């Protein structure tokens, strides 16, 4: 067995010792190894004290482990480092990294229980959507080869991950036609992009729906949103862009902003990245104007404006979940939509535990759950398409 493999195996055995999971024969063999190396034995006796383990876990929780490990490997290549480091120190470093980070990981592997079928039933989302045209035509976009969709008065370029609208009707004839309404529906486990006829770009998150005209006639550009979307609105000073979402209406000329207005959530939030937005309650005169870096929260017909970092609310567009002291219940709402699963909490208290961190949306669900278990307060069990959440 290679030296590195021996160190890794030793680390695993030490972990199993902490979990009281060694056979009598394995425990005797581990004892012999420690007795042969007094310095390692001394270090191990100190390390396995509860306070020390908890301190190491706290320290390493703040460290970019991949970066630190790369630095460690780089140092090992230097002659000075190879000359002065001993084998037991290499082993100790290996054990430290694995115990400090692998301890919670091993615990997570134990608690994130899955069956074989589950390993292929919950996956990250991807580009999925259905286009529904006013005349009844429906296009399941993932099943449609890239190309051009031709509908009344318009040609829609389908690239696989996005739709782009163009107008084929001559200007003199377009005025005689009423722009047909199109609807794009993004299911759970999906996302999609589209460029509207005026050049406005829209990113739709999972479980969202957008209704819009094939082209914009009249004095305004109006769309209707259910769910979450990021808008990069093409500037047109003579034709305001209006977004209707649940009980609010947003009015802009040209700007970038995010709107979250899910039907199964009580509050609506609009976050401004740049430009200017006016948010008005429907059937009311209440309205607020936003500046970049501000968010309006609409709850029970009240408008509350706060200064925020827009990245926390728009990072999903770039493929990242960002959580900042966010309740586990709210985190799972986002995960449910993206990974397309159901969640069951064993008690109400769990829902209010919080978590801070960044998670790539391409991560497998088991990796996400293991990261969430770093709170040392919850554990998970996966049964088919349902995740059961309980306290440690």
Could you walk me through the main structural features you see in this protein, from its secondary elements to its overall organization?
By secondary structure, this protein is α+β, with helices and mostly antiparallel strands. The chain is built from 11 helices and 24 strands. It has helices at about 5-20, 25-35, 40-45, 50-60, 65-75, 80-85, 85-110, 170-175, 310-315, 330-340, 365-370; strands at about 125, 130-135, 140, 145-150, 155-160, 160-165, 180-185, 190-195, 200-205, 210-215, 220-230, 240-245, 250, 255-260, 270-275, 275-280, 285-290, 295-300, 300-305, 320-325, 340-345, 355-360, 380-385, 385-390. The strands form 3 sheets. It has a 19-stranded mixed β-sheet that branches. It has a 3-stranded mixed β-sheet with strand order 21-24-23, with helices on one face. The model is unreliable at about 55-100 and about 100-110 (pLDDT under 50).
Classify the beta-strand content into a percent band.
25-35%
For the biggest sheet, the summary is:
19 strands, mixed
* Span of the ends, CA to CA: 37 Å
User: What would you say the CATH architecture of the largest domain is?
Assistant: Sandwich
Work out the number of β strands. 24
Could you list some keywords that capture this structure?
392 residues, alpha+beta, Jelly Rolls, Phage tail protein beta-alpha-beta fold, 3 domains, 19-stranded mixed β-sheet, three-stranded mixed β-sheet, elongated
